[in-house]
Design brief:
The protein is α/β, with parallel strands linked by helices and about 400 residues long. The protein has 10 helices and 21 strands. Helix 1 crosses helix 9 and helix 2 runs parallel beside helix 5. Bound molecules: flavin-adenine dinucleotide.
């Protein structure tokens, strides 16, 4: 027999749990959260773990402990959505029917998109701090290095928190400088875009740090192949169509990413959308063709840079609009495209980029240049945000 719930949420990550908690607080009684994993992660701390500035245990809780009281956790995986029939098919074979559906299963990693990458990150000289299990390994590799070549890469296309690819790199450079070995280590950063981030104010700050640490920045460039046995990373420059083979002692690679395959196979993405994100009105977060379907977070087809910071705004907008829709009222809340990326440019300072979907600065505190390197921003990113996440955001209170 099929289950039925008033609101069904696919994905119990940052978006799903915080939205469920908020809807519960707003009085929605019957909410089901579909999430297959036993553990819930605060992913921004992966960068700090990889840079030797946080412990593994700080980034993880049991999924049970973060699931809001009164919300039904379906420990299962969505495999199909039939939006015309208002139903979700689960890997177990069950079907869940809904009055409203919220789709937020995050991004999938496409390890196979770069030949040799999967093998390389699991080899003794490779890692990727985008995986919880591999983040501490990166710090083991980086902290034991006294000379050699280290390559940090970021792919083109959608990624979780684009700037996070750089965070362990600066943390390691500062560590090596403290230990007097930085000048023996060649650091190469591979970036797919014309500048280091894309906002002039932020680029200036980061370029100063890059010059200070002596990092070799490869812009317009991508990792296109890895040979783990020979420790060779092939980097292609998309601007001048050249490529080079870099011999590395440590490789940290961020994998190419997209919406999950099963989601791309539904009719929820816009026809022809190559990344497969859920087609929503970018302000109301409601599906443009199915009025009882919604999306937020990394899997939503919004124009913002994908980050947990964006969710702080999206969750409130979606929750309020969903309530209005249930009452037959107009949708009054609008998401403004806000996103954020904190760059840990040293072991105790952060450059805090806050910006809109056009990459224009959008500081939370008006007229304060939060993109300037600061110790206060370090405290906010490293110490305050994890507490706010576990105790307020996941409880639908921030
Ligand atoms: C290394 C790293 C550093 C980051 N740093 C920052 C930062 O400094 N600041 C910042 O704001 N953001 C940062 N982010 C990004 C932030 O973590 C994400 O933007 C945020 O978690 C997105 O929330 P989400 O709920 O959309 O996806 P997620 O939190 O990834 O959750 C998706 C959930 O859906 C579940 N799921 C997947 N498929 C299915 C399915 N078929 N059925 C049911 N459930 C499914 C998954 O198991 C997962 O629990 C970082 C991310 C990483 C990886």
């Amino acid at each position: 027999m099929a289950l039925r719930h008033e609101v069904v949420i696919i994905g119990g990550g940052n978006a799903g749990v915080s939205l469920a908690a908020r809807l519960k607080r707003y009085g929605v009684k019957d909410i089901a959260l579909i999430e297959p994993k036993e553990h819930h992660f605060y992913q921004p701390l992966f960068s700090h773990i990889a840079g030797g500035r946080a412990q593994v245990r700080e980034a993880v809780r049991s999924q049970e402990s973060v699931t809001p009281k009164g919300v039904s956790w379906l420990k299962d995986r969505a495999v199909k959505v039939d939006a015309k029939a208002n139903s979700v098919m689960l890997a177990s074979g069950s079907t869940v029917n809904y009055e409203h559906l919220v789709v937020c299963p995050g991004l999938q990693y496409k390890w196979d998109a770069v030949p040799g990458l999967a093998e390389a990150v699991h080899s003794p000289y490779g890692s990727s701090h985008y995986e919880f299990e591999l983040a501490p390994k990166l710090w083991t590799l980086l902290s034991s290095l006294t000379s050699g070549t280290v390559v940090f890469t970021m792919p083109a296309g959608p990624v979780k928190c684009a700037g996070a690819s750089q965070k362990p790199m600066y943390l390691a450079c500062d560590y090596w400088r403290e230990r007097g070995v930085l000048e023996n280590i060649r650091v190469v950063m591979v970036q797919p875009y014309p500048t280091v981030f894309g906002i002039p104010e932020v680029d200036r700050e980061l370029e100063g740090k890059i010059a200070g640490y002596g990092i070799e920045l490869r812009t317009n460039s991508e990792l296109v192949a890895v040979n783990a046995a020979e420790r060779t990373a092939t980097i292609r420059n998309n601007a001048d169509h050249t490529s080079e083979d870099l011999q590395y002692d440590v490789l940290n690679a961020v994998p190419p990413q997209s919406a999950p395959d099963w989601l791309q196979a539904t009719d929820l993405p816009a026809p022809g959308d190559q990344h497969g994100f859920v087609e929503v009105d970018t302000q109301t977060l409601r599906h443009t063709r199915y009025p009882n379907v919604w999306s937020l977070g990394d899997a939503a087809g919004t124009a913002n840079s994908k980050a947990g910071g964006a969710l702080r705004k999206q969750t409130k907008v979606l929750a309020r609009n969903l309530l209005s829709a249930r009452k037959g009222e107009p949708l009054s809340q609008k998401y403004d495209g806000y996103s954020v990326c904190p760059f840990t440019v040293s072991r105790n300072t952060v450059v805090f980029a806050e910006f809109d979907h056009h990459y224009n600065p959008m500081p939370t505190i008006p007229k304060v240049a939060t993109w300037k390197e600061s110790r206060l921003s370090w405290w906010v990113d490293r110490d305050m945000f994890p507490q706010v996440y576990w105790h307020l955001i996941l409880k639908g209170r921030a």
